[in-house]
Design the sequence.
C-alpha cells in the first residue's frame, strides 16, 4: 500500500537512504550466531562483495564472537549455515557474491552441540 | 467484564478532601496506594461531587481545581459546575 | 441586580466556539490545507466535545498555580542538596535516561500540537491542541530546570540535545516522534493524542514518578506529577478525537484502525526503555514492568477498547503479542545496554543477588530459565576480569530502529527475523508489528536514518568506535561504561563516607 502524502507523485521522488551505492564499494552483511543470545542481536558489517566466504568466517565472524566461552569450542566443519532463509553449504573459497549473498543479506549459523551458557541459549 | 472507571490523584494535603469525598460517594471503590500517588477504581463509574469536597474543605471549590492534583484517569469524562464524573456507561 | 455568573458549559461555548469564524477573504480549504488529504471525512466540526471545558483564562490560572508549586519544590531540593539523599547513586541513571530519551520528545510533542492546533478546522480541537502544545513546552522547560541540578554533579546529561539527534538508542524515541510529526494532523492526533497519551502514557509517567518518589527524588517526582496533571487533559483530548472521527463518518473506521494498530505497536516498542528502567534501574522498585502492563494496558486498555467496540474499532493488532512480550522486553533491553555500555550515556550494572531474586519472583515463568543464566554468566566473566562487551555494531529494525534483539513469539531462545523487498532493496524488521507498519508505507521508512548504517556510510565522525563517540560528544570514561568504577560512583561514595564521618 502506498504512503498517504500531500504532494502528488511523492512516492516517485523518494530515495532509498541505505542503497548499495552509499557504502563506498562495500555491501552490508548481517551475521547471527544462533542459541547464543549473549550477543543480543545479529551484528552488521560493511564488506567487499568479492571477499571470500572463508575470510568472512576467519576475519569477521571469529573475532566478533571470541568473547563467548563457547567460541573456542566451535568445530567449524559442522556449522550449519543459512543465508537469507535458505540452509546452504557455503564455498569458503568463493566470494560472498558467488555464494548468493547481496546487499543486506542475513547469515545465520548454528553450532551443533553448543547451546550457550548451561544450555540456556545465552 | 466490568469496565473500570479510575482516577489517580497526588497523595498530598490538597488532594485529601477529594480522596475522602470519592471514598464517601462511591460505594465499592478500590484503593491502590503507590509512592506519591493513589489510584481509585470503581466498576463502570466514578464521581467527584463538588458539595462533598466543599463540605470537607470548608470553602467553595470548583471541580476544575481537581486538575492541580490529578495524575491520571480512565473513563469518559463529564465535567460540570457540580461534578467531575468518569464513566463507561452510555 | 448583580449579573449572573455563566455556567461552565456556557462559558466554554462563548470563549471557544464563540470566538471562531468562517473565513471570507480566503476559502476555508486554502486556510486549512492539511485536514483532508489523509482521507478523514468530517461532516460537522461543531459536534466536537471537550469534556474538560477548559477556557484559555482558566488554563493560565491553573498552569500558573502548578508552576508556583513546582518551583518551590525545585528550590528546596537544590538548597537542601537533595541529590545526596536519593536511594543510591545508580538511581541517577533513571534521570539521565529520562532527560536524554524522553524530554526532547516533549519538545517534539509541543511542535506537533502547535501544528495541529493551527491546522484542524474546528475551534474545539484547535483550542485543546494549542493548550496541549503549551503544556508540552512547559514540560520540557521544567524537566530541564529540574535535571540541570543533577547535571552539576553527575555525568551523561550535559549534551542531551546534541545526543538526541545522533546517538543510536536515542534514535528510537526520536524516530517515533519524527514519524508522527511527518504524518498529517489526524494521524498525529491518533498517534500522540490517542495511542501514546491515552493508551500508553500511564506506563511512562506513573511508574517513573512513583519510582522517583520511592527513591527519594523529590524534584523529579514533582515535575513528573506536575506534567502528569496536564496529561489527564491530554488523555481526554486523545479519547475525544477518536470518538469524534469514528462518529463523523463510517469511512474513517479503517483509516483510524490502521493508525491505532501502528501507533500502539510503535509505542509499545519505545516503552521498552521504561520497562528496563523499572525492572533494572530503580534501586528501590515500585512494581515490575509486567505488573504495570497488566494494570495499565490489560485492565485499563481492556475497558477502553470494550467501549470503542461500539464504533467497530478493534483492540490493536498484536496487543496479544505485546502482552506476551511483557515477560521479556525489560530483560532483553537491559542485555542490549549492558553489552553496548561503552556507547551509552548512562551507566549499567549486573543485578545483585537480592535483585535477581526479585526478578525471579516477578517473572516466575521466564526469568530463571532464560535470563538469570545470562546475568550469572556475565557476572562470572566480570569476576574473572573478562567483562562481556559486544565489539560489533547491531543489526537494527528498519521501523523501530532498536537492535534486533527481540525473540520469536513463544520462543525466547530465537531472535525474530522478518524482512520485505522494495525496489530491489531488502529491509529487516524485529517483529510482525514493525513489518506491517513498513509494508503499509514503505516510501516513508526506506528513508529512515538508521544510526548503524549511517556510521558505515561515513556520516558519523569516522569508522572507529572512538570516532563515533566523539561525534556523539560522549565523555568517554565518565558518561559511559559500568556504574562501578565511574566518577558518579566515586562522588556518591565520597558523599556517603562524609555522612558516616559526620554521624560519628
Sequence:
Amino acid at each position: 500500500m502506498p504512503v498517504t502524502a500531500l504532494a502528488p507523485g511523492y512516492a516517485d521522488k523518494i530515495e532509498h537512504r541505505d542503497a548499495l551505492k552509499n557504502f563506498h564499494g562495500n555491501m552490508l552483511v548481517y551475521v547471527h550466531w544462533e542459541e547464543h543470545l549473549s550477543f543480543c542481536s545479529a551484528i552488521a558489517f560493511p564488506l567487499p562483495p568479492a571477499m571470500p566466504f572463508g575470510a568472512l568466517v576467519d576475519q569477521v565472524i571469529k573475532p566478533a564472537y571470541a568473547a563467548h566461552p563457547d567460541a573456542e569450542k566451535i568445530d567449524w566443519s559442522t556449522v550449519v549455515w543459512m543465508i537469507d532463509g535458505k540452509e546452504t553449504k557455503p564455498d569458503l573459497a568463493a566470494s560472498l557474491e558467488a555464494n548468493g549473498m547481496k546487499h543486506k543479506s542475513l547469515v545465520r549459523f548454528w553450532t551443533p552441540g553448543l547451546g550457550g551458557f548451561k544450555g540456556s541459549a545465552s | 467484564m466490568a469496565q473500570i472507571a479510575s482516577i489517580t490523584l497526588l497523595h498530598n494535603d490538597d488532594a485529601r478532601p477529594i480522596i475522602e469525598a470519592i471514598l464517601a460517594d462511591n460505594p465499592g471503590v478500590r484503593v491502590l496506594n503507590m509512592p506519591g500517588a493513589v489510584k481509585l477504581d470503581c466498576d463502570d463509574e466514578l464521581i467527584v461531587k463538588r458539595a462533598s469536597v466543599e463540605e470537607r474543605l470548608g470553602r467553595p471549590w470548583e471541580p476544575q481545581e481537581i486538575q492541580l492534583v490529578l495524575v491520571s484517569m480512565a473513563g469518559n469524562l463529564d465535567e460540570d459546575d457540580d461534578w467531575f464524573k468518569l464513566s463507561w456507561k452510555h | 441586580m448583580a449579573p449572573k455568573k455563566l455556567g461552565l458549559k456556557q462559558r466554554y461555548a462563548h470563549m471557544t466556539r464563540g470566538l471562531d469564524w468562517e473565513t471570507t477573504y480566503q476559502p476555508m480549504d486554502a486556510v486549512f490545507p492539511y485536514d483532508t488529504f489523509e482521507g478523514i471525512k468530517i461532516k460537522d466540526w461543531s459536534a466536537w466535545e471537550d469534556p474538560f471545558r477548559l477556557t484559555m483564562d482558566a488554563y493560565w490560572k491553573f498552569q500558573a498555580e502548578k508552576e508556583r508549586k513546582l518551583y518551590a519544590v525545585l528550590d528546596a531540593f537544590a538548597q537542601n542538596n537533595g541529590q545526596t539523599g536519593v536511594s543510591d547513586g545508580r538511581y541517577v541513571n533513571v534521570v539521565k535516561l529520562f532527560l536524554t530519551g524522553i524530554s526532547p520528545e516533549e519538545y517534539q510533542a509541543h511542535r506537533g500540537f502547535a501544528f495541529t492546533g493551527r491546522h484542524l478546522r474546528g475551534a474545539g480541537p484547535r483550542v485543546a491542541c494549542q493548550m496541549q502544545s503549551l503544556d508540552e513546552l512547559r514540560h520540557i522547560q521544567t524537566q530541564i530546570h529540574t535535571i540541570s541540578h543533577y547535571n552539576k554533579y553527575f555525568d551523561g546529561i550535559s549534551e542531551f540535545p546534541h545526543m538526541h539527534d545522533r546517538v543510536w538508542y536515542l534514535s528510537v524515541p526520536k524516530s517515533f516522534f519524527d514519524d508522527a510529526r511527518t504524518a498529517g494532523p489526524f494521524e498525529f492526533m491518533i498517534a500522540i493524542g490517542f495511542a501514546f497519551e491515552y493508551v500508553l502514557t500511564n506506563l511512562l509517567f506513573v511508574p517513573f514518578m512513583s519510582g522517583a518518589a520511592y527513591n527519594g527524588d523529590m524534584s523529579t517526582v514533582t515535575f513528573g506529577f506536575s506534567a502528569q496533571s496536564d496529561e489527564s487533559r491530554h488523555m481526554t483530548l486523545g479519547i475525544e478525537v477518536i470518538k469524534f472521527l469514528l462518529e463523523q463518518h463510517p469511512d474513517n473506521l479503517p483509516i483510524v484502525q490502521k493508525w491505532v494498530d501502528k501507533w500502539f505497536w510503535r509505542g509499545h516498542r519505545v516503552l521498552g526503555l521504561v520497562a528496563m528502567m523499572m525492572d533494572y534501574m530503580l534501586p528501590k522498585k515500585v512494581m515490575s514492568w509486567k505488573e504495570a502492563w497488566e494494570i495499565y494496558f490489560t485492565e485499563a486498555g481492556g475497558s477502553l477498547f470494550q467501549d470503542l467496540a461500539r464504533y467497530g474499532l478493534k483492540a490493536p493488532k498484536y496487543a496479544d503479542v505485546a502482552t506476551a512480550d511483557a515477560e521479556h522486553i525489560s530483560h532483553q533491553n537491559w542485555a542490549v545496554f549492558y553489552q553496548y555500555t561503552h556507547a551509552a550515556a548512562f551507566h549499567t550494572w549486573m543485578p545483585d543477588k537480592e535483585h535477581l531474586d526479585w526478578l525471579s519472583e516477578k517473572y516466575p515463568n521466564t526469568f530463571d530459565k532464560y535470563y538469570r543464566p545470562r546475568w550469572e554468566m556475565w557476572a562470572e566473566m566480570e569476576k574473572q576480569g573478562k567483562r562481556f562487551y559486544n565489539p560489533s555494531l547491531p543489526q537494527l529494525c528498519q521501523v523501530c530502529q532498536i537492535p534486533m534483539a527481540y525473540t520469536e513469539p513463544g520462543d525466547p531462545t530465537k531472535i525474530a527475523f522478518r524482512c520485505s523487498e522494495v525496489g530491489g532493496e531488502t529491509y529487516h524488521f524485529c517483529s510482525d508489528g514493525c513489518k506491517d507498519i513498513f509494508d503499509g508505507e514503505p516510501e516513508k521508512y526506506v528513508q529512515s536514518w538508521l544510526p548503524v548504517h549511517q556510521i558505515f556510510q561515513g556520516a558519523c565522525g569516522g569508522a572507529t568506535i572512538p570516532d563515533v563517540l566523539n561525534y556523539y560528544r560522549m565523555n568517554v570514561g565518565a558518561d559511559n561504561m559500568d556504574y562501578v568504577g565511574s566518577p558518579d560512583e566515586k562522588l556518591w561514595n565520597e558523599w556517603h563516607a562524609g555522612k558516616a564521618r559526620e554521624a560519628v
Observations:
- Chain B has a mean pLDDT of 94.
- The two ends of chain B are 16 Å apart (CA to CA).
- Strands of chain B lie at 4-10, 30-34, 37-43, 45-49, 70-74, 76-79, 83-87.
- Chain B has two helices and seven strands.
